[in-house]
Amino acid sequence: MQRSVAKFGISSKRGRTRTSNDPYLPEGGHKEPAICKSCHALYQQKRWLLDPHTVEAMQNRPDVQWVTCPACQKIAEHYPEGILTLSGDYLWNHEQEIRNILDNEAERVLAKNPTARIMQMTAEDQSLVIETTEQKLAEHLGRVLNRAHRGELQVDWSGSPRICRVNWERWQ
Length: 172
Ligand SMILES: [Zn+2]
Description:
This protein has two domains: 2-76, no CATH class; 80-169, Alpha-Beta Plaits. It has seven helices and nine strands, in the order H-H-E-E-E-H-E-H-E-H-H-E-E-H-E-E. It has helices at 2-6, 11-14, 52-58, 70-77, 89-93, 95-112, 135-148; strands spanning 34-36, 42-44, 47-49, 65-67, 82-87, 118-124, 127-132, 152-156, 164-169. The strands form two sheets. It has a five-stranded mixed β-sheet. Helix 6 packs across helix 7. The longest helix has 18 residues, at 95-112. The radius of gyration is 17 Å and the shape is elongated. The N and C termini lie far apart (37 Å). The chain binds zinc ion. The site of zinc ion has 7 residues, from helix 4.
């Protein structure tokens, strides 16, 4: 892990207080316009957005920079910044419903912020673990789930390296 992220210069940035929001975005951002060659998100006015029509109209322009957006880089390198862990018997009795809540909410967030994504959702050791590309998404999903299915929610931003760890559990 450490070795594979090193080429993006992340290992040194993770422990540091960040001045920019994302270690996967070059200092000062990309030149514009830029399009992610993997997910076709568009980078304009210093932010990423989904705009398929504009991307289609732009893609043959010689001044377009073809880059890999922070979310696609983190997914490729398996570098989650948020980890939401769900556990308890209640979870497994309502698994499909809970997965739907998370999927729907993630889709809603993605429409506004294409670099906030669920990286993977895996069942391990009686828990369901959801890894996200951005810290805030893990917290947000935990809160949305907890509003719909009251359980115990813990949000921990104190970890170093800086990952937002969110735990939710409900037993009955
Ligand atoms: Zn991308």
